[in-house]
Amino acid sequence: MKKKRNAKLIYLAVLLLAAAAAVVFFLNKDTIVIDLKGNETIHVEYGSGLPEADIKAYKTGTLLRFQKKEIEVKTESDVKLNEPGTYTIRYTAETDGVREEKTQTVIVEDTTPPVITLKTDPEHYTPFNHPYEEEGFTAEDVRDGDLSASVVSEEKDGVVYYTVTDSSGNTAKAERTIVYDDRTPPVLTLDGGAQVFVYNGDPFEDKYTAVDDCDGDVTGKVTVSGQADTNTNGSYTLTYTVTDAHENTATAERTVVVRARSLESEIKDFSKVIYLTFDDGPGRYTAQLLDILKKYDVKATFFVTAQFPRYLPLITREDAEGHTVAVHTFSHRWKDVYSSPEIYWADFDKMNEQIEKYTGKRSNIFRFPGGSANTVSKKYCKGVVSAVAQQAAQKGYVYYDWNIISGDSGNTEDTNQIYRTVITHIASNTAKGQPSCVLQHDIKDYSVAAVEGIIQWGLQHGYTFLPLSENSPTMHRTIAN
Ligand code: ZN
Question: pTM surpassing 0.70?
Answer without folding.
Answer: no
